[in-house]
Write a structure and sequence with these properties.
The structure holds two protein chains of two kinds. Chain A is mostly helical. Chain A has two domains: about 270 residues, MetI-like fold, CATH 1.10.3720.10; about 210 residues, MetI-like (MetI-like fold, Orthogonal Bundle). Chain A has 23 helices and two strands. Chain A has a two-stranded parallel ribbon. The longest helix of chain A has about 35 residues. Chain A is globular, with a radius of gyration of 25 Å. Chain A starts with a helix and ends with a helix. Chain B is an alpha+beta fold. Chain B has two domains: about 230 residues, Rossmann fold, CATH 3.40.50.300; about 120 residues, Nucleic acid-binding proteins (OB fold (Dihydrolipoamide Acetyltransferase, E2P), Beta Barrel), CATH 2.40.50. Chain B is built from eight helices and 20 strands. In chain B, the strands form four sheets. In chain B, strands 6-7-8-3-9-10 form a six-stranded mixed beta sheet, sandwiched between helices. Chain B has a five-stranded mixed beta barrel with strand order 11-12-13-20-14. In chain B, α3 crosses α4. The radius of gyration of chain B is 25 Å and the shape is elongated. The chains are: A mainly alpha, B alpha+beta. At the A-B interface, α19 and α20 of A face β6 and α2 of B.
């Protein structure tokens, strides 16, 4: 009897996940094909016949490929240095350098804007130094997009490189040394080849992230369209069918990427013969000059990478209208922060984002954990399906999901599971929840997989029923995994821009949308304040994630 | 009074692999039954069926005539000690021990007093507030036992409780576990793959092989009166030789064309064996002796290995008729490479003849 109840529970979980994740995508595909109504390939044919669509597709692909190369060029050496050489401050800087990955993309973008943009610190500095008439450059087009991508996505290469380096057995390097290979030779012939699988993983991750990237192309792209910005533009122009076709195309590309990633996964460990030895020892720098040099280089790089965020902080203290032509802002005070606190309309987006992100995170925890538990317990085909459903929103660009949700939940057909949610306060939390599912679900899965199943059996043999087992054994033991997933989910929801821009209403406008409108109104100080807020909350959640992950 | 625990025709398969076939067993109140068998014999699966973590495909499990087969583990009131202890890492020693009482809704005061009652049973008084990661393996083992004992279960299940310990700790912990179980007087089912452990702790031993019960009996019965060739080989040291039953209780070994290459030995037959049928005889080392080579009842061979064990010395003799046997030698040293005869030590336990496996249906 309890078995039947379990099976029922599993089924209803699958149904909920399908409704949230799979169903909107299906509806989008069907509507793009003209269903319900006459089946028609017309929108697809129109898509194929339009030069601007092909251009956007091509832009997406080459920008993503170039992002991979640039991010790798920054991330891999950085990982090699931080994992391979010991210098003062290595640990702290090592953590800070990974921070950009946790910051909402939009924050990174506006930070870049304030630093390197037309009226940013650097261009003003150059302008003043060379006494130029106008700004020496404009931060726009593919170059700007690539810059931002490289800047935020090197972290994947950095983290993957470090993780793989730790896993390399020191005796392999020692064997190479005993065979006469010098330091450089060991790096090229042993270390880097062993990093291969990790680098492939990082490259695919970067490619997928870049393919889904919206903030940078939206802010810096101008006339240069990629698929994500093209989709939103079609939607805003009222070309719904075209937006749907574009979404389907982008989704296909993303699934292709996911498939490639899955194939690359098994080779992830750089361990030969299944025996895991001791990780290589970090090189201690003895010669003082080299030591000073390495330290300076490490700090220099870290500061350079964190400079945009420092800029954001500075700009947030520049009162409106006080910084005109000077190279450095003449006045700094807290008036922007005060205006936020005193004007309820300005505080509104902060509160909106907070409650919507909280609700979404909570929902994602409950749903993600239940699905993960069900997947681990039953395994087999049902388990596989649950796992796939948990991963899909991660593989798909947020823009695609936003269009899918907008398509599915703007119609009232309760018998088909479709309700009008667009325009209500519930559509955004729902979108955030779906986007956060992979974060909470996958971390729960990882946690549950590490959990000795006999712990739950022990609790059962001691008379604990299902609820008590979850509450007293599973949850306390999974706390680190759940908190880690939840903090990332919260960050993602709090800073979300890509789904918000498609689905927000004025009453539920989140922080990111308010940043955009402040920028439009030339209210850079206020935009920076919002950015700093997002940054601080995200950094806190990220640190919590790091702590819990280590626990 | 009915037997305390009855296993009735249990069958279990995972996919197309049959793990247990037709297991029927009865266990008396207060008895310690050991499930012994090589790895993969199904002993742990049987224990998990009893515990309720797995459901049998066929058969019932009865406790005092009550069918508990459909009950989930949490409603069976059995205690279990897990192979890797499965102590809750987020709870203290006392928290672990009190867990089962908490599940049964026992108020806090009583829980604490029961913890204080149980910990001395396993020699752990004063350990209440320790974290379970901080204590030694042997102590963790005892916490696991205390935790299982605390709710006063009807039956104690132990899944290879010593396999996770250093060999040096194993014997001591075995003694402690055994005495704690005896003191409480609880009925127990103890799984192990080590014969010595099984004989030490079990009132009776159930030997499993390939999912079947080979024999159930006291350690003495298993050792002295094995019912199958597998039991004879698995329990204690034994050598086997092929021969032919030439008359009731007489097995001819070798062809006997030369002196020392054949002999006819008295045996006790087990199972259905007919005259002139091929048999396998099983010989305990202490049932054999080293002799002169020219005795008519001796088989000649060469000493190929010598294992000095203090109180006795084992010699492995490679026989000229083929095969080799293990023999307990006297105090006199016989050199490796020397020729010797091997004969039955009449006063000792007789050889046993089993149907030759090739003719056995299995």
């Amino acid at each position: 009897m309890s078995r039947r109840r379990q099976a029922l529970g599993g089924m209803s979980l699958v149904l909920v996940l399908v409704w949230l994740v799979g169903y909107p995508l299906l509806i989008t595909l069907l509507e793009a094909l003209g269903i319900p109504g006459a089946f028609s390939l017309a929108p697809f044919l129109e898509f194929a016949g339009r030069a601007d669509e092909w251009r956007a597709l091509w832009h997406s692909l080459w920008i993503s490929a170039a992002s991979v190369v640039l991010a790798g060029l920054v991330g891999v050496p950085l990982g090699l240095v931080f994992e391979g050489v010991d210098f003062p401050g290595r640990r702290t800087l090592g953590a800070l350098v990974a921070l950009p990955v946790a910051l909402p993309p939009l924050v990174g973008v506006i930070a870049f804007l304030f630093l390197y943009g037309e009226s940013g610190f650097v261009s003003r500095g150059v302008q003043a130094a060379l006494s130029l008439e106008k700004a020496p450059w404009q931060l726009s087009g593919p170059g700007a997009i690539l810059l931002v991508h490289a800047y935020s996505m090197y972290v994947y290469f950095y983290l993957f490189t470090r993780a793989a380096l730790v896993r390399i057995d020191a005796s392999i390097l020692e064997a190479a040394a005993s065979l006469g290979a010098g330091r450089r030779r060991r790096l090229w012939r042993v270390t880097l080849p062993l990093l291969g699988p990790a680098l492939v993983g990082a490259a695919l991750l970067t490619f997928m992230t870049s393919l889904a990237s919206f903030s940078a192309p939206y802010i810096f792209g101008g006339g240069f369209r990629v698929m994500t910005t093209q989709i939103v533009a079609s939607k805003l122009n009222g070309e719904i069918a075209m937006a749907q076709v574009e979404s389907v195309t982008l989704a296909l590309l993303a699934f292709l990427g996911l498939w490639a990633m899955r194939r690359a996964e098994p080779g992830h460990t750089a361990v030969v013969g299944g025996v895991r030895g001791v990780a290589p020892i970090r090189r201690q720098l003895r010669r003082p000059l080299v030591r000073v040099g390495a330290t300076a280089l490490g700090w220099g790089l870290a500061i350079f990478l964190l400079l945009p965020h420092l800029t954001l902080l500075v700009i947030s203290f520049v009162p409106p209208g006080t910084w005109t032509t000077e190279a450095i802002p003449p006045v700094l005070d807290g008036s922007n922060y005060r205006s936020l606190a005193s004007a309820p309309e300005r505080l509104r987006p902060v509160l909106n984002s907070l409650w919507m992100a909280s609700v979404a995170t909570l929902g994602a925890i409950v749903l993600g954990l239940s699905a993960a538990r069900s997947a681990v317990k039953r395994g087999g085909r049902m388990g596989g399906l649950l796992e796939t459903l948990l991963s899909v929103p991660w593989a798909l660009p947020g823009t695609v999901f936003a269009i899918a949700l907008a398509t599915t939940f703007s119609v009232n057909r309760p018998e088909l599971g479709r309700f009008v949610l667009v325009g209500t306060p519930w559509i955004l939390p729902m979108a955030y929840l779906v986007r956060s599912l992979p974060l909470t679900g996958r971390s729960s899965l990882a946690g549950l997989r590490q959990l000795d199943p006999s712990l739950e059996e022990a609790a059962a043999s001691l008379g604990a029923g299902r609820l008590r087992r979850v509450w007293r054994v599973i949850l306390p033991l999974l706390r680190p995994a759940i908190l880690a997933g939840a903090s990332l989910a919260f960050i993602t929801a709090l800073g979300d821009f890509v789904t918000s821009i498609v689905l927000y209403t004025y009453d539920t406008r989140p922080i990111s949308i308010e940043i955009l409108s402040s920028l439009r109104l030339q209210d850079t100080g206020v935009a920076a304040v919002y950015g700093v807020l997002l940054m601080v909350v995200s950094a806190m959640a990220f640190l919590l994630w790091g702590r819990e992950r280590r626990a | 009074m009915p037997p305390f625990l009855i296993l009735n025709g249990l069958e279990k398969s995972f996919g197309d692999q049959t793990v247990l076939r037709d297991i029927s067993l009865e266990i008396e109140q207060g008895e310690v039954l050991v499930l012994l068998g090589p790895s993969g014999s199904g002993k742990t699966t049987l224990l998990r069926l009893i515990a309720g973590f797995e459901q049998p495909d066929e058969g019932q499990i009865l406790v005092l005539d009550e069918d508990v087969t459909p009950l989930p583990p949490e409603r069976r009131n059995f205690g279990m000690v897990f192979q890797h202890y499965a102590l809750f890492p987020h709870l203290s020693v006392a928290g672990n021990v009190a867990f089962g009482l908490e599940s049964r809704g026992v108020p806090r005061e009583q829980r604490l007093s029961r913890v204080a009652e149980v910990l001395p049973l396993v020699d752990l008084e004063g350990f209440e507030d320790r974290r379970v990661q901080e204590i030694s393996g042997g102590q963790q083992q005892r916490v696991a036992l205390a935790r299982a004992l605390a709710p006063d279960p009807r039956l104690m299940l132990l899944d290879e409780p010593l396999s996770n310990l250093d060999p040096s700790l194993r014997e001591r912990t075995r003694r402690e576990l055994k005495s704690a179980i005896r003191r409480v007087g609880i009925t127990a089912v103890w799984v192990t793959h080590e014969q010595e452990e099984a004989f030490d702790v079990g009132d009776r031993v159930a030997l499993l092989n390939h999912g079947r019960l080979e024999q159930v009996g006291s350690p003495e019965e298993l050792y002295l009166d094995p019912q199958t060739l597998f039991v004879a080989g698995f329990v204690g040291r034994a050598s086997t030789l092929k021969g032919t039953l030439v008359a009731a209780g007489q097995v001819k070994l070798g062809d006997g064309r030369f002196v020392g290459q054949g002999a006819t030995w008295p045996v006790q037959t087990v199972g259905e064996v007919e005259v002139s049928q091929e048999v396998v005889i099983s010989l305990r080392p202490e049932g054999l002796e080293l002799t002169e080579t020219d005795r008519p009842d001796a088989l000649a061979g060469e000493i190929v290995e010598r294992q000095y064990r203090g109180e006795v010395t084992y010699y492995r003799v490679s026989l000229e008729m083929g095969g080799d046997v293990l023999v307990v030698g006297g105090t006199d040293r016989a050199a490796i490479g020397s020729r010797t005869g091997v004969a039955l030590r009449q006063a000792k336990r007789p050889a046993r003849a089993f149907p030759s496996p090739s003719e056995d249906s299995k």
